[in-house]
Specification:
heterodimer; A: 421 residues; alpha/beta; D-Maltodextrin-Binding Protein, domain 2; 2 domains; 8-stranded mixed β-sheet; 3-stranded antiparallel β-sheet; 45% helix; B: 292 residues; mainly alpha; MetI-like fold; 2 strands
């Protein structure tokens, strides 16, 4: 029986040890205060963020940043314990209402940063009635990459696209001006055409898609595919990027496009594929006015962080990061910082930071996500059900489209109603 | 060798602890959460009784739409996948059982090896194979003068692509269990049947199948359960599309937990999903029992 008791004690110790875990004391062996910072920079940009955090760590004898770059960092953030988190601009309202992040104004003040240090579009995205809930980092708008061998000049508008596709089709029937995908960047395509047609989709606290103007604007994509053959049919998930990267073979079934309206995160891949033949430009005007949609990264302070010393450490890190000489590393990754002194540094050496400098030019016509609770869930139906029909059905009628947009609005309304009271 | 009750208990204890910690406790806790308004970040927002279940089961709201769509898609996959997964693995096992012993190990390993590949790698391979624009399958079809198909963006092609990926990936597991069952069949029965002039089908239906029926029923049940848990393939190959037609119930639950932070609603959905699975498996089991 003694053996059994001993065995049970060992098991209990093992179990309790395993349950202990936690984040430890928050101090390193040499007595520095350890601050945990989580982000989702698992692509090529991750190394450049590491440069910034490593630079900070080397400059410090009091604090040390422990950076975690995770593919699904939001899940880790929600289930873990972190001092600083990267949040996309379209999620800020949701995270704020759910009480996951807190007003960061006082930390910014300690760090010597003001919301006025940022481009107006970025400042507007983080400023709420009850405070500033994040520090803007960058804006990544939809970007146009073009293959100079197929398109010597970047198309500026719909007519340019139509003319380019005619020229390309004479060379090879599998060559097209650009690609409109059915999934992946659907939200960006919808919101860009809405911005270019001056359509306000926000009503009270929800997205109102049931607007004739939006139906007409979305039909531009249908025309691009089925009427004017600017884009090939049936491009699937991330099809705009894949078609841009393809090389047509004589007699083959693959289609290739001369331009790609896509996310700037594909820069390394397209640069590797096209080298000096790669061009970068603003998104062409296919509607009535310039306008481009995209997203942005911000740094937010989790609500759980209340310790004064840790907050002082975060302020110290922000002070270091938002020094143009340090933040320029972020532009080096291809991202476009919204911190105006850093923007000036980028613009002064545009040849060194081609993507960043180009996207900074799009800031003035940039339209970010509206500040709505569960915005991503509000747009889910229109992105996953309505948009694929627009780009997939040649003969979709306006009545059918309006009926679908009404369903999408109803879904958005219901999602908005789930907001905490 | 007899072992004492104490040692029996000690040897059983690790299983009991794991069973309680990783099954009983999460199940009971999930059930408890499903009766609460529970945010993944904010925690317990209060007891709401059956409200979560009522929202899910009452048609017309955002939760029920997502639940029924996910359930419908999952049931479609269960319906189309269980027969191929069981029948093809049985056919492979029969083929391997009939080849010389020296080759058995080689082919058994070849067919089983795909099971060891992660779902991420499998999905990447099949996404590349079935991509509409210049994918391998379309290139082959083009070589034979057949038109290219939009495998991942049109139905039922998207389901076919996911089914082929799933069969390739998981067939080895079922096959191995069938091979083990076939090894147990008394060879004298086959000799006797051959002397009586029985053909292949008569030997299979009168000797082989009755001998491995227990394994067949077990595999059918676990294949139904595995197909219900469809997640990785549809997430990574089709991203739930086209038009949410491959969004499985597990994907819906995952979205409600981690996108909407609504752990209460997601727990209620999980409970309902578990209930549907139990009902289907129980019906299957009772049907088999009655036939026996």
């Amino acid at each position: 029986m003694k053996k059994l008791a001993f065995f049970l004690v060992i098991l209990a110790v093992l179990f309790l040890t395993a349950c202990g875990g936690g984040s430890g004391s928050g101090e390193t062996a040499d007595g520095k205060i350890e601050l945990t910072y989580i982000n989702g920079f698992t692509g090529g940009d991750g190394d450049f963020m590491k440069k910034i955090t490593n630079g900070f760590n080397e400059s410090q004898d009091k604090y040390v940043i422990k950076e975690s770059q995770e593919k699904d960092h939001y899940t880790k953030f929600k289930t873990g314990n972190y001092d600083l988190v990267i949040i996309h601009t379209d999620l800020l309202e949701t995270y704020k209402q759910d009480g996951m992040i807190q007003d960061i104004s006082s930390v910014m003040e300690t760090a010597g940063i003001s919301p006025d240090d940022f481009h107006d579009k970025a400042k507007e995205q983080v400023t709420f009635d009850d405070g500033v809930f994040a520090v803007p980092l960058d804006i990544h708008p939809m970007t146009m990459f073009y293959n100079k061998k197929l398109a010597p000049e970047a198309p500026q508008n719909y007519a340019d696209f139509a003319s380019l596709t005619q020229t390309l089709q004479q060379q090879d029937p599998n060559l097209f001006a650009t690609g409109v995908p059915s999934a992946g960047l659907g939200e960006w395509f919808i919101m860009t055409v809405a911005a270019q047609n001056g359509i306000n989709l926000v009503e009270d606290n929800y997205m109102n898609f049931a607007q004739e103007e939006l139906a007409d604007a979305l039909m531009i994509y249908n025309d691009m595919i089925f009427k004017d053959k600017i884009s090939p049919e049936g491009l699937g998930l991330d099809g705009e990027f894949q078609a841009f990267m393809k090389q047509v073979d004589e007699g083959g079934s693959a289609v290739q496009t001369a331009t790609a309206l896509t996310g700037p995160w594909y820069y390394q891949a397209v640069k590797e594929a096209y080298g000096d033949d790669l061009g970068i430009a603003s998104v062409p005007v296919i509607g009535e006015q310039p306008g481009v949609y995209g997203a942005g990264h911000t740094l937010a302070l989790p609500s759980s962080v209340t310790d004064e010393e840790r907050i002082a450490g975060i302020a110290e890190f922000l002070k270091y990061m938002y020094t143009p000489e340090n933040l320029i590393n972020w532009a080096d990754s291809g991202q476009a910082p919204t911190h105006m002194p850093t923007m000036e540094l980028v613009e002064s050496d545009a040849a060194k930071y081609p993507l960043s400098a180009q996207n900074i030019k799009q800031f003035d016509s940039f339209e970010g996500a509206p500040k709505l609770y569960q915005y991503r869930e509000q747009v889910r139906y229109v992105v996953e059900n309505v948009y694929p029909k627009v780009v997939g059905e040649a003969n979709i009628s306006k009545e059918t489209l309006m009926s679908e947009l009404e369903k999408a609005t109803e879904q958005a309304k219901q999602v908005a109603e789930t907001a905490p009271q | 060798m007899r072992i004492s009750k104490t040692w029996s208990f000690i040897l059983f204890l690790p299983f009991l602890i794991c069973f309680v910690l990783f099954l009983v406790v999460p199940f009971a806790y999930g059930l408890y959460i499903s009766f609460h308004q529970w945010s993944i970040f904010g925690g317990n927002g209060g007891f709401v009784g059956f409200d979560n279940y009522v929202s899910i089961l009452t048609p017309g709201n955002v939760y029920s739409n997502a639940f029924y769509n996910g359930l419908k898609n999952t049931l479609i996959f269960v319906a189309i996948s269980v027969i191929p997964l069981v029948v093809i693995s049985l056919a492979l096992a029969l083929v391997i059982d009939s080849i010389p012993d020296k080759l058995k190990v080689f082919y058994r390993t070849i067919f089983f090896i795909s099971y060891a590949v992660s779902v991420t790698a499998v999905s990447a391979i099949f996404k590349w194979l079935f991509t509409g624009n210049g994918g391998y399958v379309n290139n082959v079809m083009n070589t034979f003068g057949l038109g290219a198909l939009n495998w991942l963006n049109d139905q039922p092609l998207a389901w076919i692509a996911i089914l082929i990926a799933t069969v390739w990936w998981t067939i080895g597991f079922n096959m191995i269990l069938f091979i083990n069952a076939l090894d147990e069949v008394d060879r004298n029965l086959y000799e006797a049947a051959s002397l009586d002039g029985a053909n292949w089908w008569q030997r299979f239906s009168n000797i082989t199948f009755p001998s491995i029926k227990g394994v067949f029923v077990f595999l059918t049940i676990i294949t139904v359960i595995a197909s219900f848990n469809l997640y990785g393939q549809t997430l990574l190959i089709t991203a739930g599309g086209p038009s949410q037609s491959t969004t499985s119930l597990i994907m819906v639950i995952q979205q409600i937990v981690f996108n909407q932070n609504n752990l209460g609603m997601a727990s209620a959905m999980s409970m309902l999903m578990g209930l549907v699975m139990v009902l289907i498996v129980a019906a299957q089991y009772l049907y088999t029992l009655r036939k026996d």
